[in-house]
């Protein structure tokens, strides 16, 4: 968070027209640190004077050439800060304050500040968090609630691991997500909440250095956590918490989690009323290749056929689906792939497993197909 010197009302502005002052000096300058990104902009605006109708607008400029990155930012009606994180830290920036005074006097603007994000460390999803993801993705009526809370911690000295069940010293109550974004283009889910500057549940002077994420079960499940650089709580600032979750399933020569599959897991994990249906049908057939954008097998011999999971190994965050072909079913078929989908009106093709060679179905055998969904370790983050 960077404090800028106060812009005093100098009464030097032309009546009925926009005028501006560009701020180039501050305690530290509008220059971010390593591996950071601009976060939120806010300011104090004093509407003084009889018949006051003045307005304030702020432009964010690229400091290298004064080109406008964001124009005419107005004060939010609820007083909250404005997100400027679209612009990465490679842009050193200036702030231009524009005052419009219809009636004397023009507004007074002070306490301009920018909070930037500076996350250090890797967010860890716990085994319990992975099981929340699986439970909500294969049951039409999940038995655990969605992830929708954050909690702030202080004095986090231990490493957050897959087996962690809470932060070392949580100091806030659970903070509900007040803003969520389901990004179907970048295949991610972003959740945001904040600790208000007037919030007394975390005392001023508290050194905050960890955030955890939970669901809202009667006994909340600790699903993920991250440590970050120490921040000392100050009554002047609102502290924003934003985190982005992605499913980083890879494509290999033998299997693929499709983009729709990744979105299904995120949608069902973070929404109380998901808009994606659960995994609940399979296909048997032929595919020439695997792709994260595939929406069907090249040729389908059997399916869509319904099935249920066979095993949920909670200790390993593992889910096993099995389906069979009887001796007298599908004889003479040639196949090399099993696909999984859901049963929406326009179904979503979620996963495909591919054999290295074709199988010729005969009446001599019962064929068993097993697909394992195993949520990977933090280092791989795979599904």
**Strand order, sheet with most strands:** 9-15-14-10-11
- Which radius of gyration do the C-alpha atoms yield? 27 Å
Structural classification: mainly beta
- Count of helical regions: 2
Query: What low-confidence regions span 5 or more consecutive residues with pLDDT below 50?
Result: 1-37, 377-383
Strand content: 35-45%
**End-to-end distance, in Å?**
36 Å
- Whole-number mean pLDDT: 77
Please tell me what the overall shape is: elongated
Question: Largest sheet, if any?
Answer: 5 strands, antiparallel
In short:
By secondary structure, the chain is mainly beta. Helices cover 6% and strands 42% of the residues.
What does this structure look like?
The protein is mainly beta and 383 residues long. It folds into three domains: 2-117, Jelly Rolls, CATH 2.60.120; 124-246, no CATH class; 255-374, no CATH class. It contains two helices and 24 strands. It has helices at 127-138, 259-270; strands at 2-3, 19-23, 37-46, 55-62, 68-73, 82-83, 93-100, 108-117, 124-125, 147-154, 175-176, 179-183, 188-195, 207-215, 222-232, 239-246, 255-257, 281-286, 299-306, 309-313, 318-325, 334-341, 349-360, 367-374. The strands form six sheets. A five-stranded antiparallel sheet has the order 9-15-14-10-11. α1 crosses α2. The two termini are 36 Å apart. Residues 1-37 and 377-383 have low confidence and may be disordered.
């Amino acid at each position: 968070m960077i404090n800028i010197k106060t812009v005093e009302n100098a009464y030097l502005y032309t009546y009925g027209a926009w005028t501006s002052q560009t701020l180039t000096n501050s305690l530290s300058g509008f220059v971010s640190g390593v591996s950071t990104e601009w976060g939120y902009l806010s300011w104090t605006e004093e509407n003084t004077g009889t018949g006051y109708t003045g307005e304030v607008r702020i432009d964010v400029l690229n400091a290298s050439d004064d080109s406008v990155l964001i124009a005419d930012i107005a004060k939010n009606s609820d007083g909250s800060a404005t997100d400027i994180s679209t612009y990465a830290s490679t842009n050193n920036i200036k702030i231009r304050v524009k005052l419009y005074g219809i009636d004397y006097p023009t507004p007074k603007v002070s306490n301009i500040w920018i909070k930037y994000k500076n996350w250090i460390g890797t967010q860890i999803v716990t085994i319990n968090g992975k099981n929340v993801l699986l439970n909500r993705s294969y049951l039409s009526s999940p038995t655990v609630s969605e992830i929708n809370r954050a909690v702030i911690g202080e004095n986090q000295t231990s490493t957050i691991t897959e087996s962690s069940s809470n932060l070392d010293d949580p100091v806030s109550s659970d903070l509900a997500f007040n803003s969520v974004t389901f990004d179907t283009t970048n295949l991610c889910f972003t959740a945001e909440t904040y600790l208000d500057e007037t919030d007394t549940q975390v005392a001023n002077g508290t050194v905050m250095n960890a955030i955890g994420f939970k669901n809202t079960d009667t006994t909340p499940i600790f699903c993920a956590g991250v440590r970050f650089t120490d921040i000392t709580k100050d009554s002047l600032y609102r502290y924003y918490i934003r985190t982005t979750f992605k499913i980083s399933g890879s494509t290999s020569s033998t299997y693929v989690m499709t983009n729709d599959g990744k979105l299904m897991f995120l949608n069902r994990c973070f929404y109380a009323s998901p808009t994606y249906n659960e995994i609940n049908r399979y296909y048997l057939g032929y595919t020439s290749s695997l792709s994260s954008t595939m929406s069907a097998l090249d040729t389908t011999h059997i399916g869509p056929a319904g099935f249920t999971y066979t095993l949920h190994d909670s200790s390993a965050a593992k889910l096993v689906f099995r389906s069979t072909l009887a001796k007298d079913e599908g004889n003479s078929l040639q196949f090399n792939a099993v696909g999984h989908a859901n049963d929406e009106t326009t179904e979503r093709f979620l996963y495909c497993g591919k054999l290295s060679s074709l199988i010729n179905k005969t009446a001599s055998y019962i064929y068993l197909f097993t697909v394992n969904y195993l949520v990977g370790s933090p280092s791989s983050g795979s599904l």
